Amino acid sequence: MLTHPTLDQLRALKLDGMARAFVEFAAKDETRDLAHAEWLALLLDRETADRDTKRFQTRLRAARLRHSQAVVEDIDYRTPRRLDKALFQQLATSRWIAEHRNLLLTGPCGIGKSWLACALAQKACRDGHTVHYARVPRLFADLDLAHGDGRFPRLFRLLTKVDLLVLDDWGPDRLSPGQRRDLMEIVEDRHGRGSTLITSQLPVSAWHEIIGEPTLADAILDRLVHNAHRIALDGPSMRKLAADQANSPAASTDAMTAVAKPSKEAKK
Fold first, then answer.
1. What is the pLDDT of residues 59-90, one digit of tens each?
2. Which H, E and C letters describe the chain, residue by residue?
């Protein structure tokens, strides 16, 4: 069998993963003697993995996460901030997204709410879910502009159709009448169809006052809160802890030692 025509056919069929695997396996002694069925199974496995990776990368780019490198495997459970490890590991399975439940993540500034939200969103992308991240102040400004330039229907579809909508930095400003109406429409369309993750420095008990109008506040919170998981963080600022650790005498000593210590190449 000719190698080059086979590769050309695979690439023409957009089976790039199989084409790369074909070249790799043909160069290995341990795979040359495999039966045809075994070769085919390996090529199909590589093509499947290749396509899964591309789909994940596409979903991750579309999500536009603030912390795109945040992953659940890097979560710091040692720092005391009232992060329930068992609950968070359960959330990392993304089952709550499949069940169309919400997550409300509250706590003081600098405690890591946005990073944790992005880590869960990144895991959702890995698990095959579509995600959109937005900071609440910028989202409302964008919605206001979209009403005037004709983009509102397209933006509204984006916000309501994704599997997970991350609304970061909710509050503390009171919502305007237009913002209340937009939020109500978004929450109503997503209720029972998608999951919403909200981070805020304010406790959930203060959200009613932020929304403002009692009737709409009741309707919005009824759809957000009653089927939601809640994580209320509390503790020192993670940013401050990182800065203190970087400026500690031990860190400075380690840095000076690393500079003063000759490398292996220098010794040679």
1. 999 999 999 899 999 999 998 899 999 999 99
2. CCHHHHHHHHHHCCCHHHHHHHHHHHCCHHHHCCCHHHHHHHHHHHHHHHHHHHHHHHHHHHHCCCCCCCCHHHCCCCCCCCCCHHHHHHHCCCHHHHCCCEEEEECCCCCCHHHHHHHHHHHHHHCCCCEEEEEHHHHHHHHHHHHHHCCHHHHHHHHHHCCEEEEEEECCCCCCHHHHHHHHHHHHHHCCCCEEEEEECCCHHHHHHHHCCHHHHHHHHHHHHCCEEEEECCCCCHHHHHHHHHCCHHHHHHHHHHHHCCCHHHHC
